[in-house]
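Reopening this ticket.

The earlier resolution said the output was attached, but the attachment link was broken on my side. Pasting everything inline this time so it's all in one place.
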Amino acid sequence: MAGFLEHIHPPRIPPERTRFSATFCLGGISFLLFLVLGATGLVLMFSYVPTPQGAAAFFASEAGDLPFAWFFRRLHFLAGQAMVITLFLHLARVLLSGAYLPPRAANWLVGLLLLVLTLALDLSGYVLRWDPATQSAATVAAGVVGSIPAVGPLFQRLLLGGPSLGEASLLRFYVLHCLALPAVVLVACLYHFWRIRRDGRPTSGL
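Inline output:
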């Protein structure tokens, strides 16, 4: 039992690495913002309907008729933008301090994956406004996905729910934003935290 607990919670972090001045807690702040996004997003899901008419009504009435819905909407938006900034700063600190070096190289790649997923979360949330500007953004994003060799056209069709952007596309982006991407981000975060403890400190750098 003790061996299993040590496997899932390895104790290999040097005391100096736990200082606030060593990391500025940017990774922890990013995860806290992700939890805020999850909590506020759960509240907003009660009033957002993933149809063109539902999206228009949601944003026309300041996030629906739920109590303090406007507050949760603004907090959700600000937490999303702040998470992008803190994640960029976190990765920049890791890069500049050399903390991406072995044995943390694999975990560095997980961090880059989390950045891509966070940007995808930000974009998919933006598309949920479903106005001409966000529909153009969705078309561009689908075009980028479609340009992936071999599997791109298939993924593009899955993303749009058809050959081109339409009402079905809004539901696809809604599912991505509210379910699929948050679930993948959560799993990647937990694995990232576990690798930090298991890998210990890099062979060089901070």
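Reporter confirms the inline version is readable. The chain has a mean pLDDT of 88. The longest helix spans residues 167-199.
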